[in-house]
Amino acid sequence: MERGQRPAKPAFPEPFARVVEAFRRLPGIGSKTATRLAFHLLLSSEEERSLLTGALDTLRSNLIPCRDCRNIVERDTQNPEAPLRCTICCDPARDRGILIVVEDIQTLYSLEKSGEFKGLYHVLEGRLSPLEGVNPDKLRIRELLERLGDPEVKEVILATSPTTDGEATALYLSRLIKPMGIRVSRIAFGIPVGLEIEYVDEVTLIRAVEGRHPF
Q1: Which of 8, 22, 155, 207 could make an SS bond with 189 (beta carbons 3.0 to 4.6 A apart)?
Q2: 75 lies in a domain?
Q3: What is the 3-state secondary structure (H, E, C) of 49-80?
Q4: Do 91 and 112 form a contact (C-beta atoms < 8 A)?
Q5: Domain of residue 22, residue span
Q6: Comparing 9 with 79, which gets the higher pLDDT?
Q7: Stretch 175-190: mean pLDDT, rounded?
Q8: What was the pLDDT predicted at 196?
């Protein structure tokens, strides 16, 4: 090797490289983390690997969407095709007059983890995106409007992302819901705690002002 020339990266055997690539495709996983996870599996016990593969195999087959909100719920093994309701929708203590609309299940669980929201949810399973071919028919909008036929629902909170597509989705939904006589609100997006205002971008500042509340 010539002086100053960097050594070539080691080439992993194909089976190992496929595992690394599979991990790398996961959100938030870079090449180093993917390689570390692959080595962990390689050096782990057969029992540990079987536990992981077994859990992955049953992930989709044992879970179905909640018939009301589209959250995930475990399938009834005695009646696999039966539509079921999740624990949130079944909870009699939840405020059934408030419905918060989210794009995905991950957002649902993030909000639920905070412990602050006591109403019900509705998962759209995406957001409007004309460039990606996602139109209203591909989202769970029809199911949402059906749920809003319940006179008990008094308010819908739109919790779509503060992106162009997320804003377009919120605007589209508000135009459908307001004529039904239901209050429509939008979650506020503001300045993170601990961040100096001079370092905040203009869009976040505008959101912070728009989302102001009495002090």
Answers
A1: 207
A2: no
A3: HHHHHHHHHHHHHCEEECCCCCCEEECCCCCC
A4: no
A5: 14-61
A6: 79
A7: 90
A8: 66
Say if residue 45 is in the same domain as residue 151. no
Q: Which residue has the tokens 């991990």?
A: 23
> How confident is the model over 113-126, as pLDDT tens digits?
888 889 999 999 99
Cα–Cα distance for residue pair 196/202, rounded to 1 Å? 13
Which residues contact residue 61 at a Cβ distance below 8 angstroms, ignoring those fewer than 6 apart? Answer: 75
Tell me: do 34 and 112 sit in the same domain.
no
For residue 187, give the CATH number of its domain.
3.40.1360.10
d(CA 171, CA 33): 39
pTM of the entire predicted model? 0.78
Same domain, 166 and 108: yes
Indicate if 42 and 126 belong to the same structural domain. no
In this predicted structure, what is the pLDDT of residue 80? 73
Apex 132 CA angle, 128 and 135, nearest 5: 40
Pick from 28, 192, 19: nearest CA to 106: 28
Round to whole Å and give the CA distance between 59 and 56: 5
Token pair recorded at residue 88: 């949130």
